[in-house]
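To: structure desk
From: M.T.
Subject: fold request, one chain
Message: Could you run this one when you get a chance? Sequence is below, nothing fancy, just the single chain.
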Amino acid sequence: MKSILLNIVPEETRMAVVEDGDLLAVEVERASHAHLVGNIYKGRVQNVLPGMQAAFIDIGQEKNAFLYVGDGAPHDIPKGVAKAAKPQKIHVGQNLPVGIIKDAVGTKGPRATLHLSLPGRNLVLMPTAAYTGLSRRIEDEQERSRLHALAEKYAPEGMGLIVRTAAEGISEEAFAEDAKYLENLWASIARKFKLSHAPALLYRDADLLVRIVRDRFSADVDELIVDDREAYERVRELVGFLSPDLAARVKLYDGREPLFQRYHIEQEIENVGARQVELKSGGFLVIDKTEALTVIDVNTGKYVGKTNLGDTVYQANLEAAAEILKQIRLRDIGGIIIVDFIDMETDEQKTALLDFLRDGARNDRAKTNIIDITSLSLVEITRRKSRSNFESVVYSECPVCHGRGRIESPETVSIRISRDIRRMEHKNHAKNGYEIEVHETVAEELRQNQLMMNLAAEFGTDIKVVTRPGIHPETYTILQQS
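Reply: Done. Structure tokens follow.
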């Protein structure tokens, strides 16, 4: 049983995909964290970096978009839109149609491209690239040949079409209608480009509700449950237009118990941000993020196995691999991922683990590559991510540790205080003493190690320690008494 659950409140929309009680995916969208991915803008070039084959584009947002043009310019843009120049001719002040392919992350602005795309239910129109492609999930060769022929037939002149998984089995009439709809949509965008002043939003991608119906609600989903009547009516209307045969699977939830609690996934969603993930066998994963990559460490924990050590390690790694693929999807981790598996005895086990990972990665909607495994059982994974993920929307940087995951120990802060007092005493003796305001944990450390008592005796002065509520554990104030 596969279900899509939609929890709607005025402040946010939450989506969860559940199959046989197992949480497969989670996504949240808030009005205050609007996604830019999929939007198309008329942007103005603000800065060009020839050495990097890149430019910064003003799209009317807080941060300029980064445009990498080193992979060549797109094909001609249809009539009504100025043709995008070749990379070496892009200049400051130039107006360009750009699509956003990655949301802003941290200090980095959004990522833009000249290769535009417009997604529909069954097709994706490529207005600036005249080629056709098919979803790799359509496996039947005869069907692939049929769809490829339709794409060649109905692709607008000078443009390309990508056939989505949802198109498998659709009629030629439905195919043609989707292609025509996208062509008309692009014509509208082209007119806006001609008439608007940069920077300007030409096309906004659909919100989470529409994207779920368009991209996720397919024949393999048994039910789509919505807990808000207004959203339910909207979803019913969308499904009736895009996939009328699935309309009966859309249901309104009006139970007294909150929807996510009813399906026992509220706690699991809250755990998505946890650093440590427990495994059923007693082992656990530790997930750490850096600016450049994500590192996942596999630990056996309490798992001791039932046979020999080699088999125990291998079975622990297999269980960890399955959970790692799940966590990568749930957290929507992108970029480079390094997994430190437990060392295995044989090359056969390493190869089998890689095969297991590669097979499981095929179920990921984002493009995921399992690169290789080293002699130390390190596995490198790369995964494409575009939108701000669940963690980036739900969590913010810790105001205490500032994202480091740790703070200085009370002993370290105490030693810093003693160093400062010595420096102050060398400049000017405080005959009336000092008053030090600190966090309560530092105050306790100072009382236990008698550091301030020793300093007072060393300099012949009085030192008073005061606890200040709400002060940062690493912060202190040294007041010289007058």
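Reply (cont.): Residues 345 and 464 are 60 Å apart (CA to CA). Let me know if you need anything else for the meeting.
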